[in-house]
Structures are given as C-alpha cells and as structure tokens.
Amino acid sequence: MTMKTSDFFVKRLKEWGVTRIFGYPGDGINGVLGAIQRANKAGDGIEFIQVRHEEMAAFMAVGHAKFTGEPGVCLSTGGPGATHLLTGLYDAKMDHAPVLAISGQAETTARGASYQQEMNLDRIFADVANFVQEAASPAQVRHLVDRGVRIAIAQNGVGVVILPKDIQDEEWQPPAHTHGFTHSAVGYQRPRVIPHDCDLQRAAEVLNAGKKVAILIGAGARNAAVEVVQAANVLGAGVAKALLGKDVLPDDAPFVTGSIGLLGTEPSWKLMQKCDTLLMIGSGFPWTEFLPPEGQARAVQIDIDPAMLGLRYPCEVALHGDATETLQALLPLLTHKEDRSWQEEIARQVQAWWQVMEQRAMAPARPVNPQRVVWEMSPLLPENAIVTSDSGSCANWFARDYRVKQGQRASLSGGLACMGAAVPYAIAAKFAAPEKPVVALVGDGAMQMNNMAELITVQKYWQQWQDPRLIICVFNNQDLNQVTWEQRVMEGNPRFEASQQVPDVRYAEFARSLGLQGIFVDTPEALSTAWQQALQADRPVLLEVKTDPEVAPLPPHITLKQAKAFMASMVKGDRGAVQVLSDTASQLFHKKS
Ligand SMILES: Cc1ncc(C[n+]2csc(CCOP(=O)(O)OP(=O)(O)O)c2C)c(N)n1
Ligand SMILES: [Mg+2]
C-alpha cells in the first residue's frame, strides 16, 4: 500500500514512542498535520497540542522532557514559525533536555529562490541543534527521524528535522538496496557508564582524606538521590543544590543547605567557603565565585557528559559516569567519618537559616511581601505537586522560600534563564501528569511577555485533565524587579523608570474572562486562605498577588563593592531605594566583603 512521506514520518515517530506534539500550524507543515489527522482517525495517532506561539511549543517540549525523561517534540511551519521555535530550543540545549523539533519548509523546487518564508533553516538551527537536516528526498526521511530522535535522547540535546512541503506530500519511498541509500533503525538503550576501578579508588582517596566535605548536586543527580544521601552520611557532608537539582533532594534533610548561587542560601555559601573537599555530581552550575576559591578544596566530579568535566573547578579526579552507578561503585570505597562536627555545624546553620527565611517572609511590606507568597505556599502543597518558576525575582523565592518535599518536582529555565517558560512548562506538566496539581510562579513582566497568552491554551485544554488544578501565581509588582535590583546592585544605578515600570494589568480578571478562576490578594493575611482556595478549586486558578517591588532579592552574600554600588544608587535619587534602605541595611552590613 502506498502512503505519503508525511504518513511514514508520523508512523516512524510513533515507533519511537512519541505520543504528543506541541505545535502550531502553517502551510509549510500542513502535510505532516494531515498525516497526524489521518493517524488519529485510524485510532493510532499522536496527540497534537495547539499552543499560542511556537516558542511556547518548544518550552512545552522542554517541560515534557524535564518532567518525564522522554524526548519532548515540537512542531512549526517554516520561516517565522521556525524562528519562533529557536529560543525554546536553546532552553533545551542549555538545560540538557532531549527535544525533537519538526519544521516545515518551502518546496524543494523553490529553495534558493528567495521564495516566501524560505530560509536556510539548517543554518539557523545549526548552533542550537546536535543534529539538523533538511530532507531533499522521501528516501531520506527514515534516517532523519531515526537520527533526530536518537541523537536528541543520547546527547540530551536538540534534533531538528526540516521537511519541505513537496517532500511531505510525495509518495513514501523506502531506501533502495543499492548504492547511495542508508537503512536506519528505531531504538536507543542507554549504556552503563561507570569509571574504571583505579579512578574510583583515586576519587575515594580524595574524599576519605577530607575533613569538611561539601557535595554539590545538579539535575544530573536526579536518579541518584538515595546514593547522594548515603554519600553525605558516610562523608559527614553537607549537600548544596544547583537550581535545576532543587527537587533531587527534599529540603527537610538536616544537611541539605538548599540552593546555591546568587539565588541561593547562606548555608550553601558557607559550605563552599569552608569546605576542604568538594564532590560535584551532575551539575554545570556556572557561577564559580560561589564554589570554593581555587586551591581551597580538593575536588572530585562525576558527570555523564565529559564536556562538563573539569570545567568549573579544577577537580583532581574527574569521573565520566552515570551519577547513580558511579556513586554505587564509589560508596563501598568510602570510609565513615567518625568526626561529625562539620555536618552538625552545617545542620545548625540550616536550621537557623530557615528561621531567617521565615522572618524575612513575614516582614511587613507594601502591600504583600513576595517571599511570603512562596513561604505560605510551600507547606500547603501536596506531595505530588509540580512547581515551575519563571525568570525574575520570583525565581529567588522559588529557590529559597519553597521548601521542596520528597516526591515533588520543580523546574525553571536554568541555563538560558529565559522569561516566559513557567506557564508552558506547567502546561506540559499537566499533560504529562494530569493527575497532579501544578503551580507556576510568574512575574508580571513575564506574564505580559507571553505567559498570558498561554492561559488561552489552558482554557482550551484544562477539562481534559483528570485533576484540574493548575495555579498560576502572578507577582504583580508593576516592575521588572529582578533587573531593577541588578541595575541598583551591579551597576550602582538608580531604578530606570522607562525600562523597568510595567503597566498594571488585571490578571485575575483576565483569567476569569476565560472561564478560569481568578483570585486577587493585596493583603498578606489573605495569602494562606487564597492558596487553600486555589488548591481546592475545580478548575485552573490565576492567583494574582500585589507584591512589593522594594523587597530586595539579596544574594546570600554581598560583596563590599556591590554594597557600595547599592548605596551609591540610593543617593542618586532612587525613590524606592530610600524605602528599602532601612529594611535591608542590617542584612547588607553583617555580610562578608
Ligand atoms: C527573554 C528575556 N528577556 C529579558 C530577560 C532579563 N530579565 C530577567 S528577569 C527580568 C524581569 C522580569 O520581570 P517580572 O517578570 O515582572 O518579574 P519580577 O522580577 O518583577 O518579579 C528580566 C527583564 C530575560 N531573562 N529573558
Ligand atoms: Mg514584575
């Protein structure tokens, strides 16, 4: 029986286990959409989720990959649809999430003719993709799917298949058994990647010699939580978490110091400043100023990606291996540290830090303290909740005030730190786990940029979700606040009204206009009830909170240089800064320089 190349393409995606595609149509990709439609009619299809913008489709594919471990798939027409995908694909690349992008293209007969919507898409995608190829003949399509998906999975990166319109509609031709054709296959099994015994031995020697061991984990330690806890116990270590590894370990373990970095905690900062030994597991955490100064600590690193080894700290032993298997092989070689004083000191700091967090969250603000929004959410969240955060000051509160529990999942755009990912990630989470409640934390700027439009996608699909609870919590501070603070603290400039102020929008009302529930909060006392209401709702909820832009997302430590720059911005006539001075001065000046 003959079939179109697009029908074969969809069939092959099915064979790879693809069940859902996030995308947006256009004439450049209509052949493939027709094939999805035919497959669905035959009862053997792929679910197509229509988004508002292709960038959001790519973010959803990333969210799917992060929350399921399966490759996420997004689709666009050629030209503008393809360029819209690009930012989301960079999110996949930078957070090592496997994503396949399918893009349309002008007809092969029009290529090179400056035709409408015709671009050299393979060049556009070349930097972001681990594999990119435009089809020029139906016989190619089999290996393009196979390579695109396999490389995306195996390299935790981006595969892009570009299909010109005419190829999609041509009769499918299997590759001939003759010169000039290739015969590819479906399927990929992850290998065991374990370092040699001699290298494990060297690593154990370094770790056993240390008296003050710090462990840093990232998303690469996701399946190794049990082994990380065992290692921390044996070594008497503290464990700090890079942001993408926030949900790898719950925050209730006494030696878990929480997030690290500018958005991190003081115990994580101290852990790194005082340790004599560092064990990094599955993390590409970029800000090396938050790691021990070079020479202070002897270091061991474990990473499945050799490109990440020896990159952030000069480790003595760099182990190329899977986190779980490598730790399992390493654990029997470690000796139990008798002296527990280092870990006990860390536990004391962690305990004290949670009190600081509570005090900061409960401090009065005008009108609502944004830290309190997340602080009040945290204990109310069910143990199967998934939390996403956008980029902006809410990422600070997500990092510090959200006390993640065992079983919860959480993520955000980490490496790219791109605005606009929270709602599409949350939508992808709802499709991947419709039985779980999902919360997205979003700033008003990010809401206006593109998250707001995706509320329409929520409205379109929410009734399909077994558990309809999806809470989009908007921090309405009428400011691009994270950057306002960067302008103040990093540059020493006062807030620049023209670039920072964002219009006041009625987010809760907008949600209501779509048939979703809208809750508006402008007093701190109402927060707890609002969260409870949202968590009991029978439909998605937009929880809009009027938050105070003058609550500083202070880094865990602040350098004297930054403090001086901050002070300079005050005297240059920054109105908000005068208000904030009294609140933050004490936090600033008992920090190290
Ligand atoms: C696409 C993109 N553009 C710009 C930035 C720089 N940026 C980071 S946070 C931020 C402010 C976000 O404002 P909002 O969403 O209102 O959150 P707030 O910080 O006010 O809580 C900006 C502009 C970015 N990360 N991504
Ligand atoms: Mg804002």
Write down the CATH topology of the largest domain: Rossmann fold
Total helices: the number is 22
| CATH homology-level superfamily of the largest domain | Thiamin diphosphate (ThDP)-binding fold, Pyr/PP domains
Please, what is the oligomeric state? single chain
Return Rg in Å: 25 Å
Domains (count) = 3
Descriptive labels:
593 residues, alpha/beta, Rossmann fold, six-stranded parallel β-sheet, binds thiamine diphosphate, binds magnesium ion
Task: Give an overview in words.
This protein has helices at residues 5-15, 30-41, 54-68, 80-94, 121-125, 141-154, 165-169, 197-209, 225-235, 266-274, 323-330, 341-362, 370-380, 393-400, 422-432, 444-461, 481-489, 497-500, 507-513, 527-535, 560-571, 575-589; strands at residues 20-23, 47-50, 72-76, 99-105, 131-134, 158-164, 213-217, 238-241, 256-259, 277-281, 298-303, 317-320, 386-389, 409-412, 438-443, 470-476, 517-521, 541-546. Residues 585-593 have low confidence and may be disordered. The strands form 3 sheets. It has a 6-stranded parallel beta sheet with strand order 2-1-3-4-6-5, sandwiched between helices. Strands 9-8-7-10-11-12 form a 6-stranded parallel beta sheet, with helices on both faces. The chain folds into 3 domains: 5-169, Rossmann fold (3-Layer(aba) Sandwich); 197-348, TPP-binding domain (Rossmann fold); 363-589, Rossmann fold (3-Layer(aba) Sandwich). It has 22 helices and 18 strands. It is of the alpha/beta class and 593 residues long. Magnesium ion is lined by residues 392, 443-445, 475, 477, 479-481. Thiamine diphosphate is lined by residues 391-394, 417-419, 443-446, 475, 477, 479-483.
